[in-house]
């Protein structure tokens, strides 16, 4: 399973000679192995999969899709204000 | 939560869907590789806000779903040993093998434990030196670094009672197999975001070039997927077939060099049988000889396994994107998450489980036909109306 979620590194420490961290997932703190993101600093975000940090999240790149959206919105304003026929996105509750 | 919530913004999703609608001029079939991406599509109704020209088909990126019957049977046999503590991710527990599942082994006295991380299994081994601890290492390349780290950690802590039952599968070989198949209808791919966070995406460039197929490495949130579709459509409409990286906040072309190094140290590539798809050459991992003491396949003798698949289950065709879950006669009837017939219904990332969870089996069109009846007549696809059943 490849579910990985972003969390904020709060603290780092060593255990069994491995770099570990306390990572905050929206208020829930978990122990995460940081061996492969060894240059990460507290306050930065990492992508965590099964208790292991895969990579650090690049803040600048994270903004890029919102820049694209700004461009698209500006383009839309230049065209006629006809309504789109896209249905509203709804989130289903399982 | 930062880096999650903002990628679920409704208005932004509509903007991207609209841009896609303005770009597309003819029908296209796109496959998302990862089970996690399938889940997002079904949960947020991504396929329903896309223009009808675009068909999203679901790929084989669910490691639980593609674990072979033989491997499952072997796991069940090992877990039945009285001195074994068998550790696994939760979603493997109810995957049916030939005769039983891990939960049944547990109910008959097997010590089967759910762990969140392979590193937890190492802790269990350290705390139970008189028992043999086995971790069921199921996953794609994403899970290979933590699994490799578990082996290193066991070695560092001088544990002699810990082993991995390795069932890793690799994405590029299965994509190659799909693209090379004469039945293939997929014209573009949303590539595996987390696999590529580890491995990078250089190995997808030869695939894209050889088959002239766009591969957009995509994340897992609704805006990621919509942007991935937009980029794929732009490529298709302009006749390009290249690799692009939509998930750049987590993926670099070279991946994570430390992880790749560790994987290379601990594992070697081998042939692997995929449930529902058959044998794919050079598509799996096994432990290298130096780590034989940590290889459950070598630590445990298992009897010759005769694996038997229930004939009604079409999960193989679902995994290749040839059929949808509701095309299966058993879907929502004999086969439900409570009584699964195949792995795509058991796994939280399986397409059948996703469709069931988000109510796709409850679909009725305004003309009274069910979704399955609708799909039996391909000409009806364009008449699909928005779902009435939403909670």
State the end-to-end distance of chain B.
Answer: 23 Å
Approximate helicity band of chain A: 10-25%
| Order of helical and strand elements of chain A | EEEEEH
Structural class of chain A: alpha+beta
DSSP helical segment count of chain A? 1
Spell out the helices and strands of chain B N to C: HEHHEHHEHEHEHEHEHHEHEHEEHHHHH
Instruction: Give Rg of chain B in angstroms.
Output: 21 Å
Shape of chain A: elongated
Query: What is the quaternary state of this protein?
Result: heterodimer
Per DSSP, what share of the residues of chain A sits in E-state strands of 2 or more residues? 35-45%
Radius of gyration of chain A, Cα only, in angstroms?
19 Å
- Sheet with most strands of chain B: 5 strands, parallel
Which stretches of chain B are poorly predicted, pLDDT < 50 over at least 5 residues? 364-391
Biggest pleated-sheet summary of chain A = 5 strands, antiparallel
Percent of residues of chain B in helical segments? 25-40%
* Unreliable runs of chain A: 90-94
Overview of the structural elements:
- The complex is a heterodimer of chains A (94) and B (391).
- Chain A has 94 residues and is of the alpha+beta class.
- Chain A has one helix at residues 59-78, and strands at residues 5-15, 18-25, 28-33, 45-49, 52-56.
- In chain A, strand 1 and strand 2 (18-25) form a beta hairpin.
- The radius of gyration of chain A is 19 Å and the shape is elongated.
- Chain A starts with a strand and ends in a 16-residue tail after the last helix.
- Chain B is an alpha/beta fold.
- Chain B contains 18 helices and 11 strands.
- Chain B has helices at 10-23, 35-44, 46-49, 63-66, 69-79, 102-107, 118-127, 144-156, 171-180, 193-199, 202-211, 222-237, 257-266, 296-299, 315-319, 343-346, 351-357, 371-376; strands spanning 28-34, 54-61, 84-88, 111-114, 132-139, 162-168, 188-192, 215-218, 243-245, 267-274, 278-287.
- In chain B, strands 2-1-7-8-9 form a 5-stranded parallel β-sheet. In chain B, strands 4-3-5-6 form a 4-stranded parallel β-sheet, sandwiched between helices. A two-stranded antiparallel ribbon of chain B has the order 10-11.
- In chain B, helix 2 (35-44) runs parallel beside helix 17 and helix 8 (144-156) crosses helix 13 (257-266).
- The longest helix of chain B is centred in the middle third of the chain and has 16 residues, at 222-237.
- The radius of gyration of chain B is 21 Å and the shape is globular.
- Chains A and B meet through strand 1, strand 4, strand 5 and helix 1 of A and helix 1, helix 2, helix 3, helix 7 and helix 8 of B.
